[in-house]
Design a protein that fits this description.
The chain is an all-alpha fold and 167 residues long. The chain has a domain of 68 residues. Helices cover 62% and strands 0% of the residues. The N and C termini lie far apart (90 Å).
């Protein structure tokens, strides 16, 4: 009996469409999960552990293929919120609504959080600039050491004859 071989589109698109309500949801869910898988592989050496690793053993190493296999297995899912539920959640959490943002009524706690976020971003940028300056200084110091070593080595070499006139 012949076994079914893996094709370019495995799992089949029809199986994936059965797991979601529309092809647009499939694209959005697949892209989101593929970005998460890619971010996981990119952050392996950093030890952060904030991103969920791939949930299936995949033959493919490509993030989008892994994401589609997770969707087919039911490991990556979505929840569609009704607009009424979404507005109720925003009110319960105290987040500003779209109307408040449009009117510019962002004061009090929310405004403080936004300014703290801007301060944190500025602090991170300052740290990155300092680290960049330190790395440039280290490179320049290494180049200076290499240049002085080369000069010392050249001074230790015996003088070569300049030709028959030097004898």
């Amino acid at each position: 009996m012949a076994q079914g071989r893996l094709t370019l589109m495995d799992p089949p698109i029809e199986d994936l469409l059965d797991k979601v309500d529309s092809k647009f949801t499939l694209v959005a869910l697949g892209a989101l999960r593929a970005r998460q898988v890619n971010a996981y592989y990119n952050s392996l050496g950093e030890g952060l552990g904030r991103i969920v690793p791939p949930q299936v053993a995949s033959v493919s190493g490509k993030p989008l293929s892994i994401a589609f296999e997770e969707i087919a297995d039911g490991k990556a899912t979505y929840v569609r919120l009704d607009p009424d539920e979404l507005s109720a959640l925003e009110e319960a959490e105290g987040e500003p609504t779209e109307a408040e943002l449009a009117e510019g009524e962002l004061t009090g706690l929310e405004g403080g959080l936004l300014s703290e976020g801007a301060d944190a971003v500025a602090e991170v940028e300052e740290i990155q600039a300092v680290e960049e300056i330190q790395s440039v200084e280290e490179i320049q110091a290494d180049e200076a050491v290499e240049a002085s070593t080369a000069l010392e080595h050249a001074a230790q070499l015996p003088a070569e004859d300049e030709g028959p006139a030097a004898r």
